[in-house]
From TrEMBL:
Gene Ontology MF, one: cysteine-S-conjugate beta-lyase activity
Annotated source species: Metallosphaera cuprina (strain Ar-4)
Cross-referenced CDD domains: CGS_like
Cofactor: pyridoxal 5'-phosphate
Keyword Lyase: yes
Coiled coil feature spans: none
Name the UniProt record assigns to this protein: Cystathionine gamma-synthase
Length: 374
């Protein structure tokens, strides 16, 4: 089946024949009839169905749902790492992911190395040997497309486990397992659920690995409630058609911004000017729904633009049907030090735009009016 069919297809409820998965809003199940489920923190039928759906979309052996994207990341890393193990990440990733690896895992005795924001440096470091490597397939917020084909090949040769946070790419634009990843991670709060009304995380990958992480999830309690699981399943049904529109809208907006006199630089993998355009053409099927750009001036001018839109909403999240705009230096990446933001390339004049499914002409007009304020 194609992605659009997999996104829509649901298992029929065996008890009632319901054509949509019910919300099993219960903490426990009758024993022994409910022995498979027992307790919803461990296994819940609605949540279990969501795990199956992400596994299908990613062409994985198994999938699993969590209470958030960070819950998926932290649980996965805590499963795979122990004091003395070695982890490699890159500096230009989501701020909280970097904080968790650099601050917590390092204090716990894990050897954490942080690669610069370029593939060649990471590939050179990889040759030293690591137990786990974690990358973002498209980085947040400068949209560097990581060459997971090359990194996946080297990970296989050196025997390390590759984790790929593919939140920005989605299963529609890329399937990291096809490039040698052992595990793919999603903040399902973003494009997968797609309506800015859910907090959820997902993983998909090799069966044995996912089952091992599942045991840690049950212990840590990073379990997803059945109601957001239901909402995420409902959102997934339109993932393919939403991403088709979002990919198209984002490309047009990126091209508009690149020619705007009030914009000094645009970051979008679909632009020939982007530093990883060649890599993007090779490893992505679509360029995604996030466009980052630098306003001419400083933080004051950038914040003025962000606060001057009328259709685009100033908010920290991304991936929904409605467009959102944020200021990474004071929002998503505020936990990074000035030195870390500089190393990641995040300037005070940078804005991150999450493009929705609105009419693209309306979005362009709204952005043009906002930019006219500086």
């Amino acid at each position: 089946m194609k992605d659009s069919t997999k996104s829509v297809k649901e298992a029929i409820d065996p008890t009632t024949g319901a054509i949509t998965i019910p919300i099993y809003q219960t903490s426990a199940f009758l024993y022994p009839e409910g022995e498979k489920y027992r307790y919803s923190r461990e296994v819940n039928p609605t949540v279990l169905e969501l795990g199956k759906k992400i596994a299908d979309l990613e062409k994985a052996e198994a999938g699993l749902a969590f209470s958030s994207g960070m819950g998926a990341i932290s649980t996965s890393l805590l499963t795979l790492l122990r004091p003395g193990k070695k982890l490699l990440v890159h500096v230009d990733m989501f701020g909280r992911s970097l904080r968790f690896t650099k601050d917590y895992l390092s204090s716990w005795g894990v050897k954490v190395d942080v690669a610069p924001a370029e593939d060649e440096a990471m590939l050179t470091m990889l040759e030293k040997g690591y137990d786990v490597v974690m990358v973002e397939s498209v980085t947040n917020p400068l949209l560097r497309v990581v060459d997971i084909e090359a990194i996946g090949k080297l990970c296989r040769e050196t025997g390390c486990t590759l984790l790929v946070d593919s939140t920005f790419a989605t299963p529609i634009n890329q399937k990291p397992l096809e490039f040698g990843a052992s595990l793919v991670i999603h903040s399902a709060s973003k494009f997968i659920a797609g309506h800015n009304d859910v907090i959820a995380g997902l993983i998909a990958g090799k069966g044995d690995l996912v089952r091992e992480i599942d045991m840690m999830r049950r212990t840590l309690g990073t379990s997803l409630d059945p109601h957001p699981a239901f909402l995420t399943i409902r959102g997934m049904k339109t993932l393919k058609i939403r991403m088709d529109v979002i990919n198209k809208n984002a490309q047009e907006i990126a091209e508009f911004l690149e020619s705007h006199p009030k914009v000094s630089k645009v970051y979008y993998p679909g632009l020939k000017s982007h530093v990883t355009y060649a890599v993007a053409r090779r490893v992505l099927k679509g360029y995604g729904g996030v466009v980052s750009f630098e306003v001419k001036g400083n933080a004051e001018q950038a914040l003025r633009v962000m606060k001057s839109t009328s259709i685009v909403v100033p908010a920290q999240s991304l991936g929904g049907v409605n467009s959102l705009i944020s200021h990474p230096a004071t929002m998503s990446h505020r936990t990074l030090s000035p030195e870390e933001r500089k190393a990641s390339g995040i300037k005070d004049s940078l804005l991150r735009l999450s493009v929705g499914i609105e009419d693209v002409e309306d979005l362009i007009e709204d952005l043009d009016k906002a930019l006219s304020k500086v």
